[in-house]
Design a protein that fits this description.
- The termini are close together.
- This protein has one domain.
- It is about 75% helix and about 0% strand.
- The model has no long low-confidence stretch (mean pLDDT about 90).
- The longest helix is centred in the first third of the chain and has 24 residues, at about 5-25.
- The chain has helices at about 5-25, 35-50, 55-60, 70-80, 85-110.
- It is mostly helical.
- It is globular.
């Protein structure tokens, strides 16, 4: 059974994964040209790592295939390494990684 704090963190991650996917769909494939969607997605990608730090180790242990340290560290890249972040990297993260992360947390939260 997850604590309230862990359940809230997992819910925040799932919600921000879904928001990022919706913002990407709204950009209609040209994220670099849609600054509003670009910055909205970046915000989601900053929240997800922070919330991941609130997940208990027992939950993370249920999904050892997830690179939890990299998830937590990703926020630093978006905040401090913004000069190396490009639209293609963001698109790949949102399309490939976020759906799997959200699915893992949904199954772990049940």
């Amino acid at each position: 059974m997850l604590s309230d704090r862990a359940r809230l963190a997992a819910g925040d991650i799932i919600a921000h994964c879904e928001h990022a996917q919706a913002f990407l769909r709204e950009a209609r494939g040209d994220l670099a040209a849609d600054l509003r969607s670009y910055y909205a997605i970046i915000h989601c990608l900053e929240v997800i790592p922070e919330a991941s730090r609130r997940l208990p180790e027992e939950l993370k242990a249920r999904h050892p295939e997830k690179p939890w340290r990299a998830v937590a560290a990703a926020g630093n890249i978006y905040r401090h390494g913004y000069d190396v972040v490009d639209a293609q990297m963001i698109i790949a993260t949102v399309e490939d990684e976020l759906p799997r992360l959200a699915a893992a947390l949904r199954s772990a939260s049940n």
